[in-house]
Amino acid sequence: MDTSPTPPNRELPLRRPSEPAPAPPARPAAPLPPPRLLLLDVLRGVAVLGTLAANVWLFHPGSPDGSGALRSLLDPLVNGKFLAMLAMMFGVGLAVQHRTAAAYGRSWPGRYRWRQVLLLVEGALHTLLLFAWDVLMGYAVTGLVVIWLLRRSERVRSVVMWSALAVHTVFFTGVSVLFALTEPGRPTPQGQRGIEEGETVFLEGGYLEQVATRWEGFLGTRIEILVSFPAFLFLFLLGVRLYRSGVFGDDQRGRELRKPLMRWGIGLGLPLCVLGSQVHELGQLHRYGFAIVLMLGYVGLAGWLLDRVRRRGQVVRSLSAVGRTALTCYVLQNLLGSVIFYGWGLGLASYLEARGVGGTALEGWVLGAWLVIALVLVLGARLWLRRFDRGPLETAGARLVSLVPERRSAPERTP
Predict the structure, then answer these.
(1) Helical ranges in 246-358 per DSSP H
(2) Which long-range contacts (CB under 8 A, 24 or more apart) does 64-69 make?
(3) Would you say 311 and 38 are in contact if contact means Cβ atoms under 8 Å apart?
(4) Is the dihedral of CA 93, 98, 140, 206 positive or negative?
């Protein structure tokens, strides 16, 4: 039995009515949703239209590489630059989505993983039905890896990014050395006959014949995904890093960060790309290596110009509209190119082939087709955005992904 004295009752001190109630413990603030940056929309628009300028030649089967003065002039400015920019902008998009998910307390990757799976399916259909050299499948595979890396530390992402660049550089340097040491071979008579038959299908064949041809060569064209994967991985992660560092910001910090990009990117990248376009053995290193340097210069230049023109001017509004509907415009440009050039459409390629049009005249026709397609994309995007917030493919994809149940979680701190 406890015989210790009972402690006296203690009364809690009374709080005076004039004293404020103690504040509850503060919770860590969730990250704010990222603002929409005009420069990002403009750069996406530039990337889409620039990719079209590089790819439009592929719609004319048998068009020799670098033929004519105009194409030789455009090659160091266009070849590979906008493909790299488009890849980097996909990485930026993942960084924006990651920050948005953290701001609204959504789990990561959550539905965003399914967005990449849907993009993979869209890319496969795009390859078979429209354009054999589609890049969406490669972007989807890379996006799945980067989604996982966004949950890792900055140090892990840096190691992966620079390792990917090293692998990419060593590979294409080796390819360039191999080209320099060996004489280019000529196709066998059987191989040449196969090339000519393939060109005939696109010049004169029907749509289903072309789909069958793409199906037969599907795995062969998808090898590019494996070859380009290190470059895509580097560019995606570079986009993440540049976005988080504030390079695309509409503030003084962003402007200061873009200045060295413009100086070094153009000052170093342009001479390298001119050299690569003139020396045949450096062609692959030019397209997949030097082009990245000049692309960064284009990013800085676009920001510099955007600071000096009217934000609501026609050029900025047009590029921004294409950028806001980038996926739709990318697919639509290949549909329009097929309709204009191929045999099941207007048949421009067979028309030019039958009349022996070549050299500068051929370049004029092809560049004219690029201008027509670009104008259709710009007008279509601007008209569509008057009534809708996203492009049709973007809207359809978002609705499909929204069917996947989403788990909410505590706000995630952006690493």
Answers:
(1) 252-278, 283-285, 291-306, 314-324, 326-341, 348-354
(2) 66/277, 67/358, 67/359, 67/362, 67/363, 68/358, 68/359, 68/360, 68/362, 68/363, 69/360, 69/363
(3) yes
(4) negative
| Calpha distance 110→120 (Å, rounded) | 17
The secondary structure of residue 130, as a DSSP letter, is T
Number of CB atoms found within 10 A of residue 365's CB: 17
Quote the distance between the C-alpha of residue 107 and its chain's center.
Answer: 24
Residues pairing with 408 in the sheet: 106
pTM: 0.86
Dist CA 332 CA 74 (whole Å): 23
pLDDT, tens digit, for every residue of 225-256? 888 999 999 999 999 999 999 999 999 999 99
Q: 349 is written with which tokens? A: 């390629």
Look at the block and give the residue holding tokens 């992966």. Answer: 160
In 3D space, the residue among 267, 319, 274 whose CA is nearest the CA of residue 50 turns out to be 319
d(CA 55, CA 130): 13
Is 299 buried (19+), middle (13-18) or exposed (0-12) by CB count in 10 A? buried
The string of pLDDT tens digits covering residues 135-167 is 999 999 999 999 999 999 999 999 999 999 999
